[in-house]
Design brief:
Helices cover 38% and strands 11% of the residues. It is of the alpha/beta class. The strands form 6 sheets. The protein has a 7-stranded mixed sheet, with helices on both faces. It has a 7-stranded mixed sheet with strand order 15-21-20-19-18-16-17, sandwiched between helices. The chain is globular. The two termini are 51 Å apart.
């Protein structure tokens, strides 16, 4: 660190003192002195020389990224604030699955804005994820209770994609032989849009009609909405029973807040229930991110999409939680998978679950009853004023016949600060939510020229018992588990949140070096704008003139991404990386169909591709053909050429990850792209490893036709424990006309090339409220900063690989001995010699205070390390020292000083409980808990010992357990 005299600062030029690029050094871990030391350690004369040795010259960009210079944090925030203020936030009465809600301040501050929650990774390492696993189990229990079904998953992406997942699940479990699926014409239009897209590529026929007619058709399943998009509540029991008698599976899309008062989907016979948990404390955010809930009968557990949290036990017989049935979907089945397991919204599911914990059953009942009361008062007032309200039975939404006065009334409500839904030229829709006040109802009634004696209207509604038929009112108790009746004061809730946070290891404690998952700094300045009301409180279907700020921010980010990827078009709709893959392949399929080549359905996928790729190809109706890799981990070009020629008449696409998931920049990548193009296919580049490309090369420059970008990896949106994510795609000009549009709210102007194309997600711009994070990151880094970040990521990976190579073989390197931004360490020789596996090393790393790298992907028996550019030399050395110390422990086993069963790795992780009572192990307590001197300075204690995965799968239990079980 420099300690120059004051005079040097006083003589420095103003341009230096202004520190306009200061954020770059705050984001990138290694400083210049550390970079020099690292380069010396790996034998590279300079950072540029290292990049020359790593990235093939043929694909290097000829010029710097066409982006502005870096902006200081305060200046970028001020610019984005000025953009946000162009939004006009009015009180939304639009509904359609998006509602105003109050996020309890204790949850906002201590979860949403807390890096201990938002920087955590997916809980694959359950022993250091017990806090968010418990939070997710609460969420599952909440969904189970409200839906009346036996099993819930830990969230999906949004209501529309959950409905599409329900359709494909229905096909898997249905006994009916029909190929048709019934869709209630009163489902939300955005849901119908997404289901249409998904059905087309599975080859399902869709049948539309009134819900009551569902059983008159020969179908394998049905999707019904309850309450429906008109707000109507109907008794669906007889319809569901008739469908069941024909072997069809029924999915009911519903509303969690309505289900607090309504008879549950399970009680009326539904096989699946789904919907959005948004109104449980998660802002509308111009469309997301929001957790979709999904529940079903326990018999369907192995066909259920998404992640499920289950109860197991640890090595001391203590209750412990884990992700259960992890071998489903692409983990094992890959090309046969029907959905992607990487589709969840953990942070938002946690918020929704905590909302239920904080309010409890009585609190929720009060909130729901108040919403209904205000809606009923509004309906009664409108009727008395002479406006027909055809919606007789409803929860929170009603339609009002406005005839020729529709435009006039919309204008009056707009002037008063309210957005209503225009159903038609003669009908308006109005939805009431938690944020609606009695004064709002009075103001809306006045806009209709109606009297607003709310006391009289309230008395009349109360006397009639509201607008929910007695036969459809919930009679059973909800949220009976003690967790929902314990934390209703703020200090109780605060302590509960803190207790759970203390059980989790996140980026606020130490580096998380997951290969292919890029856990980098999520800077505070990037996070601040997501809670601004201009972004948080905007309805996705608000009039476009009111959303000018959102649209400008989104367009600005799209322009940034065009510069980074080299593509002329960006689709901002996909709300996860897996959705980006799907949207990219859909655009390719649509392109082929437009040319009369819809028969092209073969997708080539190298063994080195990202794990979600085969599942995505299958979802698009494509036949997966696997391409071999050579001994150096590269795509076998001869095998690719042969298979491209063999399937030339049907070749649709190649899905390739670059640099490969093997951690190398393949030098034949342009030849690979050319071969696919030569045989009529398109190149889909998986963006999982884009962090190694930015500023040095780009998908378009390499030769790809479409690529997704994991904004939650490369562009700093935090993982949130397994979601939120965003996966926008960049497209070449010829594919731009085939990217997703939206049936409710257009994704561009009237001249947009993709007009009328079906959607892939519920909202037109996916999870729009988290896009400011990436906008801020790119604005503060600038083109030069992004290039430096990529260089630092490659340097950090090569430093780790170099220092660990003599202890763990590095499986793959490029032609000059370099890795890309990640490296694969081969544990198979160690296991063969000692029985110590990559799992044992992962568990032992917890004792050193680290989350394990990625295990057994893409090669079984290995671990893949990605240090990212954000980790400085000190943290890298701590991780490396931990890995070397673990290797030394393994050598003790090799030497026979510890047995294969009694050693620190097999007993890892160690908890405080291990240190109570007698110590009979062959190594010391100090070796177990404090294996290196610095561990004690910041000791992270796992809250449970190693979890028994087999027990959890064999004894499936996926709901909250009695509180006494945790104490035991």
């Amino acid at each position: 660190m420099s300690n120059a005299p004051v005079s040097s600062a006083l003589r420095a030029p103003l341009s230096q003192l202004e520190q306009r690029d200061a954020f770059i050094a705050r984001h990138i871990g290694p400083n210049p002195a550390e970079i020099a030391r690292m380069l010396a350690a790996i034998g590279a004369p300079s950072l540029d020389a290292l990049i020359d040795q790593t990235v093939p010259a043929a694909i290097r960009l000829p010029a710097p990224l066409p982006l502005d210079a870096a902006k200081p944090e305060h200046e970028a925030l001020a610019e984005l604030r000025s953009i946000a203020q162009k939004n006009i936030v009015k009180k939304s009465l639009i509904g359609m699955g998006y509602y105003g809600t109050h996020t309890p301040a204790v949850i906002l501050r201590n979860v949403t804005e807390n890096p201990g929650w938002y920087t955590a990774y997916t809980p694959y390492q359950a022993e250091i994820s017990q806090g968010r696993l418990e939070a997710l189990l609460n969420y599952q229990q909440m969904v189970i209770d409200l839906t009346g079904l036996e099993l819930a998953n830990a969230s999906l992406l949004d209501e529309a994609t959950a409905a599409a997942e329900a359709m494909t699940m229905a096909r898997r479990v249905s006994k009916a032989k029909a190929n048709a699926f019934f869709v209630d014409e009163a489902c939300f239009p955005q849901t119908i849009d997404v289901v249409r897209t998904r059905a087309a590529y599975f080859g399902f026929e869709l049948v539309f009609g009134p819900a009551a007619d569902a059983a008159t058709h020969e179908v394998f399943g049905a999707l019904l909405q309850y309450p429906n998009e008109r707000g109507e509540i109907a008794d669906l029991g007889d319809t569901i029973a008739a469908l069941k008698a024909k072997g069809a599976v029924t999915a009911v899309a519903s509303d969690l807040m309505a289900l607090v008062l309504l008879k549950s989907p399970g009680a009326i016979g539904a096989d699946i229930a789904l919907g959005s948990a948004q109104r449980f404390g998660v802002p509308m955010g111009f469309g997301g991110p929001h957790a979709a809930f999904f529940a079903t009968r326990e018999a369907n557990v192995r066909a259920m999409p998404g992640r499920i949290i289950g109860v197991s036990k640890d090595a001391r017989e203590k209750t412990a939680l884990r992700m259960t049935l992890q071998t489903r979907e692409q983990h094992i089945r890959r090309e046969k998978a029907n959905s992607n397991i990487c589709t969840s919204q953990v942070l938002l599911a946690n918020m929704a679950g905590f909302y239920a914990v904080y309010h409890g059953p009585e609190g929720l009942r009060t909130i729901a009853a108040r919403i209904h009361r205000l809606a009923a008062i509004l309906a009664e007032g409108l009727r008395r004023a002479g406006f027909p309200v055809p919606t007789a039975a409803f929860f929170d939404t009603l339609q009002v016949a406005t005839g020729a006065r529709t435009g006039e009334l919309l204008t009056a409500c707009d002037a008063a600060g309210f957005n209503l839904r225009k159903v038609s030229d003669s009908m308006l829709g109005i939805s009431v939510d938690e944020t609606t006040t009695a004064a709002d109802i009075a103001a809306v009634l006045q806009c209709f020229g109606a009297g607003a004696d709310l006391a009289a209207l309230d008395a009349a509604v109360a006397a009639n018992g509201g607008a929910i038929p007695a036969a459809l009112q919930r009679e059973d108790a909800i949220l009976k588990h003690p967790v929902f009746s314990t934390h209703h004061t703020e200090h109780e809730m605060l302590r509960y949140l803190k207790k759970l946070q203390n059980r989790d290891l996140a980026l606020d404690h130490s580096m998380i070096s997951l290969g292919s998952c890029t856990m980098k700094l999520n800077a505070t300045s990037e996070m601040i704008p997501i809670t601004w009301p201009e972004f948080a409180n905007m309805h996705p279907f608000a009039p476009r003139e009111q959303a000018a700020g959102c649209l400008e921010m989104i367009a600005g980010l799209a322009d940034y991404l065009k510069a980074v990827t080299g593509f002329p078009a960006i689709c901002m709709q996909p709300n996860s990386g897996a959705q980006g893959e799907y949207a990219g392949l859909v655009s390719i399929a649509r392109y082929h169909a437009s040319r009369g080549e819809a028969h092209r359905n073969v997708c080539l996928i190298p063994k080195s591709a990202h794990g979600t790729n085969p599942a995505t190809a299958h979802m698009c109706g494509m036949e997966v053909v696997v391409v071999a890799c050579d001994d150096r981990g590269n795509v076998d070009v001869a095998d690719l050429r042969a298979k491209a020629a063999q399937h030339a008449d049907r070749l649709a696409a190649l899905m390739i990850t670059y640099p490969s998931t093997h951690g190398v920049f393949e030098e034949a990548i342009r030849e690979i792209c050319a071969i696919v193009h030569e045989h009529g296919g398109q190149v889909y580049m998986d963006g999982a490893n884009l962090n190694a490309q930015v500023g040095l090369t780009s998908p378009a420059h390499i030769g790809a036709d479409v690529s997704h970008m994991n904004l939650h990896k490369t562009f700093c949106i935090p993982h949130g424990g397994g979601g939120p994510g965003m996966g926008p795609i960049g497209l070449a000009a010829h594919l731009a006309p085939f990217m997703a549009d939206h049936v409710v709210a257009a994704t561009g102007g009237e001249d947009r090339p993709n007009k009328g194309q079906g959607a892939v997600s519920a909202a037109p711009f996916g999870s729009a409220s988290i896009l400011p994070i990436s906008w801020m990151y790119i604005a503060m880094m600038g083109g030069e900063g992004l290039r430096q970040a990529t260089q630092a990521a490659i340097l950090n990976a090569n430093y780790v690989a170099n220092r660990l190579a003599e202890h763990y073989p590095v499986l793959y390197t490029g032609s000059q001995g370099r890795v890309a931004h990640e490296c694969i360490l081969d544990i198979r020789p160690i296991k063969a010699a000692t029985g110590i596996s990559e799992v044992d090393i992962a568990k032992r790393l917890m004792d050193y205070g680290f989350h394990a790298p990625t295990m057994s992907f893409p090669v079984a028996g290995t671990i893949m390390v990605e240090p990212t550019e954000s980790e400085d030399l000190g943290e890298l050395d701590r991780f490396i020292d931990a890995m070397i110390a673990i290797r030394s422990e393994i050598r003790e086993i090799e030497a026979g000083r510890w047995t294969a069963e009694d050693n620190p790795l097999k007993h890892a992780p160690h908890t405080q409980a291990d240190f109570l009572g007698d110590w009979t192990r062959s190594y010391s307590r100090e070796q177990a808990a404090f294996p290196l001197p610095w561990v004690a300075e910041n000791k992270f204690w796992p809250s449970v010992n190693r979890i028994d995965d087999v027990y959890g799968d064999r004894n499936l239990f996926c709901a909250c357990v009695p509180m006494d079980d945790y104490a035991s």
